[in-house]
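Final report, Chapter 2: Outcomes

The project's central promise was a pipeline that accepts a single protein chain and returns its three-dimensional structure in a standardized token representation, suitable for archiving and comparison. That pipeline is now operational. To close this chapter, we reproduce one record exactly as it appears in the project archive, with the input sequence first and the structure output second.
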Amino acid sequence: MKKSLLNLSILFVVATLFANCKNNSSADLFATGEFASDSVSYNYSEKVMLQLSESYEHQDSTEILVHLEIDYPKHNGKNLVAEKNIRKWISESLAFYNEYKKVYEGDSNDANAFVNFYGNSYKEYFNKQNDFPASALSYEVAIKKVFENAHCVTYTFMMDMYLGGAHGGRTYYGTTFNKSDGTALSNFLYNKDVTDDGLNKAVKDGLMSYWDIKSEDTLYDYVWENKVNQYQADLPRVSPCLVKEGVLFCYQEYEVAPYAAGAPVFTIPYSQIDKYLNPFAKKLLE
């Protein structure tokens, strides 16, 4: 009798677990359907009167600008692991440039609360300053979903900021995520090919296209000679990412050239870079 009751209890537990799994079947942790997003924004602009120091007696106010535009992963019961990891990447990217390194801990499904949290954190930083050496200060951020196929999705991060001084600063890069598990991918090229003449030429051609120059001799006038020369071109510190047209390369300011030369960005078409892509990258592009 006791054995029969035990068997019935086990069957009841199994049936309950099965029912719960069935009821939650729409919440597929590792689905690879469309990766939907909400476009949310934050805008703040205000002229602030200053408590002046002797160094800036001529300046009585400053314009504060904060603008955020984010493609925020939408919660739709699919791609749950990727959704969580990409939201975390977005949050960490924004917190990195936040003076107080604040991280959003509210409702992860509330896109507007998320963007308002980071927008207000940048605003708070500006408003706590007493005097500024510039007539306008700004944070402008855009995080956009730029590419998606059945296996991966790519987001780009762009920040233009001016905090006073001689000039502002710009950061731009992309990250490709595996949709099945949300991992950020960083290695698309065969390591042995990094110094290959063909890949070097493709990178140099990309740099030349960015500056709209026609010869390698002119290219060497634009770049740091220890970073790009006739023998080798350094790859960006931030890993290239996958986009529709090819592999996107993003160099940061001062990385391969002086500030005045800008931060080169270019795409090497898949037809040119295909033989340097490792099998994992090719699998994502099927």
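Archive annotation: The radius of gyration is 25 Å.
This record, like all others produced under the grant, will remain available to the consortium after the project formally closes.
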